[in-house]
Structure formats: structure tokens, C-alpha cells
Design brief:
The protein has helices at residues 3-7, 23-33, 53-60, 68-71, 83-91, 101-124, 134-137, 139-145, 175-178, 189-208, 211-219, 225-233, 236-252; strands at residues 45-50, 74-81, 128-131, 152-161. By secondary structure, it is α+β, with helices and mostly antiparallel strands. It has two domains: 3-167, NADH Oxidase; 175-238, no CATH class.
Length: 256
């Protein structure tokens, strides 16, 4: 298939075959990651590849006990990393200009760009991936387990392996909802309802098909997808907690 159809065929894979990823394939896709766009060609990121079973077990709890953490043959963690750059600058007699929030953002973007290159390269090799938001939510614990030095923060990560499932496509918003021509185009209330109508229908159905979630949804009287997101998945309390974790950790990692 051509690249556009290939990219649109992405599915998040949470179940994997008991099959190792050959080192030469893994190295090939990682090299593709290092060719991603990067601010100032600094490559202010590091990629941590975890295959050790015991280490993956340690990572299970900070990744919210998602089974794919231990079931997938590989976990990859992409970190914002100015440790290496700052050491090089120090050795070379340069000024330390990278101990601030802007530097953290630059490194975070670099890490994210590299991660998407690796994800696409992996899928091109017949592998499956599933991004895990828990990488950032538990950045402090993951950083401790992975023995990250100062100036390094986990940003994004995913499980990796040969797929053992074929999930259905998850509805995306229509293109006109996310593409704005020239300047931002505000949508009316009716337009917003229409934008989310298909995702609302398919998303709500998907959650209701999981028995334990259905029980929670019905007990709380939740009747739409927006309420599932804000009442069950992404509560204000949890997001404030995660925000504090991230801000405290990037401060302790000397980015503030």
C-alpha cells in the first residue's frame, strides 16, 4: 500500500504474540527514530529499550498495571534529555543555558518526534505498538526504575511486538474539525455536536461492551461519551495530581 494508506491503517495493539523482535529489526526501526526532525539538530532525547522481564515487572505498577507492559516483548521509553548535551557544553566550556522550562519543552518535542518515527518504522516491519500516557503520568517512578540522571524526563512510551489481535478502527474526528485554514475557525454548538456525533456513538458503544465498565457507567447514570471521559477516565482530581507529579519531577530534574 502507499504511505498514506499505510499511515491511516494504524491500530493500537495491546496483545502480542510470544515472539521476540529480532535485534536487527529493532535496531533498524530505532535508527529510523534517530532521523526524526530535531530542534537545532541537538537530538535532546534518549530512547530506552526494555526487554528484561524483571524490569518490565517493576514498570507494571507505574504503568497502571496494563497487561501489555509485561506481555509485550519490548517496551520503549522516549525521554526528554538535556543531560548529555549539558555535559558536552560543560566539557567544552560553554554556558549552561538549558536549565529551564523552554529547554524541557524543546526536548519533549524532540522525544515525541523520534517516537512517531519509530512507531511508523515498527508498523512498516509488521510490528504493533500502543502508546501509553502513563509514561508521563508516572514520570517520577519510571525515571527512578530506569535510573535516569538529572535533566532527563520520560515523556512518551509504547509497548512493541508482533500483533496477536486485529482491533477495529477507532473513529477519528472529521478532517474539517481539526484542520483550520489560515486562522482558527470557531464552531457553533450544533457544529460541535455534529463533529463528535460518530465518535460519540462508537466510543460509548465500545465502553459499554466491557462488563466492568458497563456496570460503573450504569451505576453512575452516565449517558454519553463526554461524561465517561470526565467522570471515569480523565477526572479533574487525577489531572491535577498528574500535573503536580510532572511539575515536581521536572523541577527536581533541574529544568525549572
Amino acid at each position: 500500500m502507499n504511505f498514506h494508506n499505510f499511515a491511516k491503517s494504524h491500530r493500537s495493539i495491546r496483545k502480542y504474540k510470544e515472539k521476540k523482535v529480532p535485534v536487527e529489526i529493532l535496531d533498524k526501526i530505532l535508527e529510523t527514530g534517530t532521523m526524526a526532525s530535531t530542534s537545532g539538530n541537538m537530538q535532546a532525547y534518549s530512547i530506552i529499550v526494555t526487554t528484561d522481564k524483571e524490569l518490565k515487572k517493576e514498570l507494571l505498577v507505574p504503568h497502571f498495571n496494563q497487561e501489555m507492559v509485561t506481555q509485550a516483548p519490548v517496551l520503549i521509553t522516549f525521554c526528554a534529555d538535556f543531560h548529555r548535551m549539558r555535559e558536552w557544553v560543560r566539557i567544552s566550556g560553554g554556558e549552561n543555558n538549558f536549565d529551564n522550562f523552554m529547554s524541557f519543552m524543546i526536548a519533549s518535542i524532540d522525544a515525541t518526534l523520534a517516537s512517531q518515527n519509530v512507531a511508523l518504522a515498527a508498523e512498516a516491519e509488521g510490528l504493533g505498538i500502543c502508546y501509553m500516557g502513563t509514561t508521563l503520568a508516572s514520570c517520577d517512578e519510571i525515571g527512578r526504575i530506569l535510573k535516569l540522571p538529572q535533566n532527563v524526563v520520560p515523556i512518551v512510551g509504547f509497548s512493541l511486538g508482533y500483533p496477536d489481535e486485529t482491533p477495529e478502527f477507532r473513529e477519528r474526528l472529521p478532517m474539517d474539525a481539526v484542520i483550520h485554514r489560515e486562522t482558527y475557525q470557531h464552531s457553533s454548538t450544533e457544529e460541535i455536536k455534529e463533529i463528535y456525533s460518530k465518535k460519540e456513538e462508537s466510543g460509548f458503544k465500545r465502553y459499554m461492551e466491557v462488563p466492568e465498565l458497563r456496570e460503573k457507567i450504569e451505576s453512575l447514570g452516565i449517558d454519553n461519551l463526554a461524561k465517561i471521559y470526565t467522570t471515569l477516565k480523565y477526572t479533574e482530581e487525577s489531572h491535577i495530581g498528574y500535573s503536580k507529579t510532572v511539575l515536581d519531577y521536572i523541577s527536581s530534574q533541574n529544568f525549572m
